[in-house]
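quick one: pyridoxal-5'-phosphate bound model?
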Amino acid sequence: MDLHVEADSAEGRRAGLERALRDAVREGRLAPGEPLPATRRLAAELGMSRNTVKAAYDQLVAEGYLTARQGSGTRVAPLPPVAAEPPRAAARARAPRFDLRPGSPDVGTFPAAAWLRAMRRALATAPSPAYDYGDPRGRIELRTALSGYLGRARGVLAPPERIVVTSGYVQGLALLTRVLGDAPIAMEDPGLPFHREVVRHNGGTVTAAPVDAHGVRVGELGDARAVVVTPAHQYPTGVTLHPGRRRALTEWARARDGVIVEDDYDGEFRYDRQPVGALQGMAPGQVVYLGTASKTLGPALRLGWMVLPPQLVDVVVDAKLHSDHHTESLGQLALTELILAHAYDRHVRACRLRYRRRRDLLLERLGAGRGVRGIAAGLHALVDVADEEEALARADAEGLAVGRLGEHWHTAGPGGAQGRPQGLVVGYGTPGEGAYPGALEALARVLAGTGKPSSPRQAVPPAPELGR
Ligand SMILES: Cc1ncc(COP(=O)(O)O)c(C=O)c1O
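yep, here:
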């Protein structure tokens, strides 16, 4: 037994042995239930008297680290029972009966067989340097494949040398925050609170970029140096950035050498019209484009990509290198195979059809009179309600988990939470195929008992001034 007992430490031999035993139990070197050597043997090994060892064992039994039972000797005590969770927290931690929380796609549709084939091909053909440290920007194979895919599917001008593969969108946002330094970063209000936290955790200052029915209000960006936007499908309101606002935003960036961070998290899923191209295509010198595999394949992959304007490439690559060298390479090679074999496009097309059907079912079930917004694209919709608290209490009683608009505002607003527009953020991509109809019925029951807001456009403020 390796106990690291200092032979003649100042604390004395017995105290030294007690501390060594305590440390070994705490650090897991001595596992719960493990028998300790007989006092006689340990005393001989350590050159101590048997009484000293026995006294140390007795002390640790008294402290609860060891147990001593007639016949089975001295053992490491079992782990203390974990305190029972308070019932409310436990209930929340349990998976809800019906899950319409936004944020995840139907992960049951992950194309495991195609991914396995792609990974097999990738490993069969990968050169041995692929298993070594590599380029901080990521594998050149993936950057080349993405360059073609993003140009074709999203209208992004993306030469491979300006692409950096990241561990999801969040890492791209974190890296950008670090390279932008002290400059204020405007983020959409309402917007995802987690992303504001990511910016703050990386030393950034967040300011509010108000959103109305045409998207972000460009005239209200204040002294921000950068603005983070979701132009294809604003999160959470679902608004598509108006063409006039697109122009105004790129003019804003050009005039002040500003940076537009385009979060294109669900741009592949557009249902009724031609896909709305990425903003990056209009201003590749001002826009940092961020894409992700989290909605198209699954968040577990942690694969995202940035397309950078030339002036930001070196600083972001340096930040990436000092963050984690580079993103894991083998998944990148598998994704390359998936894109080149057109299996990625096929999967996205199949998902688009499935989610469109779900979107249609949602509209059909809730009926025309209910304000359901942001339905042209993506995997979530915003449903107007008169009172979020009341609607969420009903949802809770139905076993339905659903998002709330209220948590997306930067601040509570002048009239407090109740003074803000009220809405539910419904993630219709989340449940498994079989679970969707039941979840939809539960939502319909919740809304049937919940008031509608009096003003028809309440959840998203109107756009008074087109173009700004
Ligand atoms: C608004 C928004 N942006 C980006 C993402 C993707 O983040 P990531 O690529 O880190 O999974 C999500 C995922 O939920 C999202 O809701």
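The pocket of pyridoxal-5'-phosphate is lined by residues 103, 168-170, 192, 230, 235, 263, 265, 292, 294, 299, 304 (CB under 6 Å).
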